[in-house]
Design a protein that fits this description.
The protein is of the alpha/beta class. The protein is built from eleven helices and eleven strands. Helix 7 packs across helix 11 and helix 10 packs across helix 11.
Length: 305
């Protein structure tokens, strides 16, 4: 796998270490966290057998050096490579509860939207629900998972976040001056569902000196009328190949927008999209992916006509 920026290299090394050996001294006391539901979850000791049902939580756990504790994942968790060797227990929203129970986890990490939480808890499993939508929440998730692992912040969450923050700044510095201030629409998924200003993706756009055409009042990931984007007429469009299979937006009226006419479109591969839409430790890598596209658009604009 190709990594972008120094952060990705460091993260890959951390995850590898997490697969083959613990990277910190094990504590033996009970652990306690309040999850995103406001539920206080107490475990007698740091979990040794963990199931993750959300890719961003899987990646956060591995970034903290604990891939070796995973015993099962959801069908969308695919990074780092180690997790592809683990048992798959269905989707994050509707997992196979029987398969989860059979793996005898002492902790199940889920999204707050999962419909299986009540049933899992009724079966006596410890469940922690976490689902970051902003960069601040992504940092909080790292901190909570670090607490569950009894990993000192300086060796875990704080260290990982400092690396993310530093690499995010490097990505921002790489954006060409001619692209700074450009108005951007980022389609998070087909619908279109937009990445709003207050989402972690929107925060990355702001960090890259871009302006989001989606009003912050609409929320982190609003489903919008395609006509909204036509009226906004952004300078740059960003989306994944999964949304725009033909290479250009397929919504009525979009062909007339300035970004489409100028070819100012960033279309991301499925692998890149996985990085971009997950609020976890690869957010800075996502920023580098966006910055690279902006560099290409700047070169195209500067090319002799």
């Amino acid at each position: 796998m190709k990594f972008i920026g120094g952060r990705a290299v460091a993260l890959a090394a951390t995850c590898w270490l997490g697969v083959v050996a613990p990277v910190w001294a094990q504590s033996s006391g009970p652990v306690q966290v309040n999850d995103a539901r406001g539920v206080q979850v107490t475990l007698p000791q740091a979990p040794q057998r963990i199931i993750s049902l959300l890719p961003s939580l899987t990646e956060s756990l591995c970034a903290l050096g604990a891939c070796n504790r995973l015993v099962g994942v959801d069908r969308y968790s695919n990074w780092p490579a180690h997790v592809k060797t683990l048992p798959v227990v269905g989707g994050g929203l509707d997992p196979n509860v029987e398969a989860i129970v059979a793996l005898k986890p002492d902790l199940v990490l889920v999204s707050t939207a999962s419909r299986a939480v009540g049933r899992l808890e009724a079966l006596g499993l410890k469940v922690v629900a976490l689902e970051p939508r902003t960069q601040a929440e992504a940092r909080t998730v790292l901190q909570k998972i670090g607490s569950l692992l009894q990993l000192p912040p300086a060796q875990g969450a704080d260290k990982v976040w400092a690396e993310i923050d530093a690499d995010m700044k490097r990505a921002a510095d790489s954006v060409p001056p001619s692209m700074r201030g450009q108005r951007v629409f980022f389609e998070a998924s087909r619908g279109p569902y937009a990445a709003g200003e207050k989402s972690f993706i929107g925060e990355t756009l702001t960090a890259l000196h871009l302006r989001n055409v989606i009003d912050a009042k609409l929320g982190p990931f609003p489903r919008i009328n395609p006509e909204y984007v036509v009226k906004a007429d952004p300078d740059v469009l960003m989306a994944g190949e999964r949304s725009w299979k033909t290479g250009v937006p397929e919504y009525p009226g979009w062909a007339q927008m300035r970004a489409v006419r100028a070819g100012s479109i960033c279309r991301f591969t499925p692998e890149q999209s996985d990085i971009l839409i997950r609020p976890g430790p690869r957010m800075a890598e996502g920023a580098h992916i966006m910055a690279r596209c902006l560099q290409g658009l700047a070169q195209k604009q500067d090319a002799p006509k």
